[in-house]
């Protein structure tokens, strides 16, 4: 009898290549991933927001149906079925390990080597929730991708600003407003996703060393990195397409004053990662050298 698939979690970071990783694994012949990238299962449990997430997924599904009927999208049978499945998953009252495993694996995934839940919001979870995730299957693996803290912060802010901006000028205005509010502690969600130290400390205290792979975004898009990921997950190396950009944010530069403040706000993140990982990408080193005294 074949062994059950390994459950793979990518817990972030937000705006650090998680959509590219999802696309890569979804195209891997030994992997099975649902058409819905982010299940938001464990963060919804921890924040007691299961009903909110169920409604959110239902709205996403209804939006797809509307666009299909208007002829703006092709028939999306798999996507619609998977939105129905994730809505049903969030309708269960409490943590249900069997329901979660069944959602990830479904009949199509039972024969795969790995199944995956790529939800960047998981980086904010508690140590106790990481331990629960680790026990969801006989074999579990966690991937955490770190991006230069300033670059990740600004990409995250631009993403949030773009949701309501109707022009380049409005995007710039909204992004700068969010940036300075972030500096005053007004965006706890963005702060939580910028806290590499907190996430790494909770992950390493909850997991066995062989369950966690930490990568750098700046080194992700190479065949060597892909080979490392495949080896970690116990699957065969599969060539990756690095020409396709996934969920790339709109271009908008930070001015020098903003760069200086961002480096100062995130100085402890640079220092912690430097202390705990034996090397840093060049982009990280350049920003560290310019941290205000």
> Could you report the average pLDDT, rounded to the nearest whole number?
93
Count of extended strands: 5
Helix fraction by DSSP (H/I, runs of at least 4): 40-55%
Unreliable segments of 5+ consecutive residues: none
Q: Provide the spatial order of strands within the biggest beta sheet.
A: 2-3-1-4-5
| CATH architecture classification name | 3-Layer(aba) Sandwich
* The CATH class: Alpha Beta
State Rg.
19 Å
Biggest beta-sheet profile:
5 strands, parallel
Structural class: alpha/beta
Q: How does the overall form come out from the CA principal axes?
A: globular
State the CATH superfamily name: P-loop containing nucleotide triphosphate hydrolases
The run of helices and strands is EHEHHHHEHEHHHHEHHHH
- Integer tally of domains: 1
Share of β-strand residues: 5-15%
Indicate the CATH topology. Rossmann fold
What is the quaternary state of this protein? Answer: single chain
How far apart lie the N and C ends?
61 Å
Descriptive report:
It is a single chain. The chain has about 290 residues and is of the alpha/beta class. Helix content is about 55%, strand content about 10%. The protein is built from 14 helices and five strands. Strands 2-3-1-4-5 form a five-stranded parallel sheet, sandwiched between helices. The N and C termini lie far apart (about 60 Å). The model has no long low-confidence stretch (mean pLDDT about 95).
């Amino acid at each position: 009898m074949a062994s059950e698939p390994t459950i793979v979690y990518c817990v972030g970071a937000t705006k650090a290549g998680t959509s590219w990783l999802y696309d890569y694994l979804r195209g891997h012949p030994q992997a099975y991933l649902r058409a819905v990238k982010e299940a938001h299962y464990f963060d919804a449990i921890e924040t007691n927001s299961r009903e909110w997430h169920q409604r959110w997924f239902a709205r996403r599904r209804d939006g797809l149906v509307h666009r299909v009927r208007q002829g703006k999208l092709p028939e999306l049978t798999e996507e619609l079925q998977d939105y129905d499945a994730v809505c049903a998953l969030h309708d269960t009252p409490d943590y249900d390990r069997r329901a979660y495993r069944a959602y990830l694996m479904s009949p199509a995934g039972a024969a795969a080597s790995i199944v995956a839940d790529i939800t960047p919001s998981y980086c904010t979870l508690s140590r106790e929730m990481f331990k629960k995730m680790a026990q969801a299957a006989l074999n579990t693996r966690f991937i955490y991708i770190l991006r230069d803290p300033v670059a990740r912060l600004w990409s995250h802010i631009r993403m949030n600003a773009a949701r309501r901006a109707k022009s380049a000028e409005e995007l710039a205005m909204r992004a700068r407003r969010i940036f300075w509010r972030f500096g005053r502690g007004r965006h706890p969600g963005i702060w939580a996703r910028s806290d590499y130290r907190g996430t790494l400390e909770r992950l390493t205290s909850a997991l066995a060393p062989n369950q966690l792979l930490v990568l750098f975004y700046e080194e992700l898009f190479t065949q060597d990195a892909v080979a490392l990921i495949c080896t970690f997950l116990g699957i065969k190396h599969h060539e990756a397409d690095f020409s396709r950009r996934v969920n790339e944010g709109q271009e908008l530069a930070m001015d020098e004053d903003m760069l200086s403040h961002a480096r100062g706000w995130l100085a402890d993140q640079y220092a912690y990662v430097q202390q705990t990982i034996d090397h840093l990408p060049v982009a990280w080193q350049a920003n560290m050298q310019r941290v205000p005294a």
